[in-house]
Prior knowledge:
Layout: E1 2-10, E2 15-24, H1 33-45, E3 55-57
Amino acid sequence: xxxxTVYRMDSVRKIKDPVGVVMEQRKTERTNxxxxxxxxxxxxxALDTADAVQIVIDVSHARQAYLPELTRDCSAG
Length: 77
């Protein structure tokens, strides 16, 4: 899983304020990964429909392997 930071863009000051994190659980890259994560972030963090355009995500700063998968060697020997 990867943690993707969600920002609220301040159009007056031209800066991004972090407001939260969404978790990407897909293991492979698909066509709409970015759009699906952005839609989820806007649904969770936007105050109203007008505020939704101010919500952005930055996938380039995603932390790889936020929660590593458990692997276990089950070889009997």
